[in-house]
Amino acid sequence: MATRFWKFANPHHFGKLVTASTPALWSLSFLFLMTGLLWGFLFTPDDFRQGSTVKIIFVHVPSALMAINCWLMMLVSSIIWMVRRHRISILAAKAAAPVGLSFTLVALISGGLWGQPMWGTFWAWDPRLTSFLILFLHYITYQLIWIYIADKESAANISSLVCLVGSVFALLSRYAVNLWNQGLHQGATLSLDQETNIHNSYYIPLVICILGFVLLFITLVLVRTRTEIIHNQIELMEKQRRKQNA
Amino acid sequence: MLTLITRDLRANFRLGSGIWLPLTMFLTIVVLIPIGIGPDIDLHSKIAPAILWIGVVFSLFLFLDRIFSPDLEDGSLDRIAASDLPLEKYVWSKIIVLWISSGLLLTILAPFLGLLLNLPLQVGLICSSSILAGSPALAAIGCLGGGIGTFNRHGNLLQTVIVLPLSIPILIFGTKSVIAYSNGEPYLPWVLQLSGISLASIAIFPFLISYTLKTVLEE
Amino acid sequence: MSIGNLKLLPILFHTRQRIDFRHMAEIEETKTSEVDLLSVSVKNLTCYRNDFPVFSDVSFQLHAGEQLFIMGSNGSGKTTLLKTLMGLSSKFEGDIHIPPHETAYLGHLNGLKPELTVGDNHRFWLKLENLPISHNLLKYFEVDDLAETPVRLLSEGQKRKVALAGALETGKRIWVLDEPFNGLDQKGQDLLAELIQRHCEKMGIVVLTSHLESISSPTQYLALDEYRSLKTAN
What we know:
The structure holds three protein chains of three kinds. Chain A has helices spanning 2-6, 11-42, 57-84, 87-119, 127-148, 152-178, 200-245.
């Protein structure tokens, strides 16, 4: 099993896997997203307190969930790069960063739009909101490293280091902002150990939406990683040509 | 170890800019913010801990290009890496130098600048103790920025921008301790947590920073 | 012993670097008794820069008392070879045997702080190796009267002499020098060549590079241009 998994660390095998699976992945994520969002927006009842604004939940919750999971995925790939030095691993982290950044932005903006009618303000320095803003900052600094450090291998090393340190400090910040003990944001929408989950009529489309976001994330990361690999190969060929001309 | 520290401190003092730049930066920030707010004394004393802490963060983080880049440019880094001395020890001494030449001086200066902000001297001393507890961690983070700065050949403040988000938890604990004291709550737990972060940082960061330096030496 | 030797965190260290610890132990045992075991050897060394090999399959072996002169045009990989030898680069294939605690290294940069005096800089490099302060080589290169002068006021040749004095006064038995003759005047070049000669006679090993004709009298030559390689990585 393990060896079969590492087989995809070979750029060639990886490229073939991506090319074979993208059509199916694109259509599946489209299907899930369409079903979930249409069901959620059109065929669920309004909340008795929040009215129809509650329906922003179908964008807000999945994107917030994916924003965090994407950072975790980047952390895991960064550690794999540091330990085993697989190029695809770090390229996948690089490819995932803008996707995660977009998810974070979507979560922040949709949260603001939801907060305005509910709390009367677009933004509050609530622990959850603040830690998301901090996550957003970490995504940006991670992105900056890839933009500004020209040498690819150095950028890979530094970005994985910053990802590692950033994770620890983001967790610390999460713990620290909780101490402000001031919170507007409601508790977790979905959790496994609680009885008081949201009503079933919301639950099923929400789960479908989350699946759609997960599939979309996987598809985007796979395609972007393949693009990064091709980019790298082109660069290598250019270097080689320059070398031979010299 | 001591050799490295004394050499860097001596170079910092002889260059002048090594100690005067952070101090001037600190003073300027602490003066500029109240000027921007206007002469509202109550507001000043309310936000004084935050101003002092942000002043510390910026005056430490704005001058990170002086930590490792000079050693890389004049070839000292190559010679030290090739010598018997472990790179981690060298990095550790750099953290200590950065802390002495800015963190420690800012700690001493903080309560007096607090007076400018209508902060009672006693509260100023609490603020200064929290800066004393937190600045080693900031120095360690700053050195990580310095290590990243060695890749930065554009002469911009990339390293500062990258490490600033890492200072958030320290900023929160630091200001929280002062606010807790003014509210009559126990402030020591916050200072102790800050010291914990500082100790962990100066223990772990040398390894991370020497990883960046090894990378830059290979370029 | 020290933080750096713990190596508890394998992720923080490059895994490709191969250091022969058996060999190092051997050297430390025999340090006092048998001087003759001192040797530097490189087998089938290929160094990479920017994902491409700079040179490939370089091999040489040096015993006590030998001197290797590495020639080559700009970009042929002289500096890369020395850096790899000193463990500053892990982008290589092949085997390197060099006792690291016995080696003094000076790159093409001097490693002097311009705002400190000559004496301060000299003392720093000696103290770093826990050695007593001596000004013998500063005297030898005739720069000892500059001891109180800040390094930024010195000429390039004088700086080179101070750097050489600091690196070689450490008493290490293997010298690895990158372009040591650069910037030196005729007298300085002669002095350095004589110093290298004397070191070899005392059963030391010297590895040096230059783009000039050799000034000292080496026992081995390595022309890196012949090993230049165009073959691609992977």
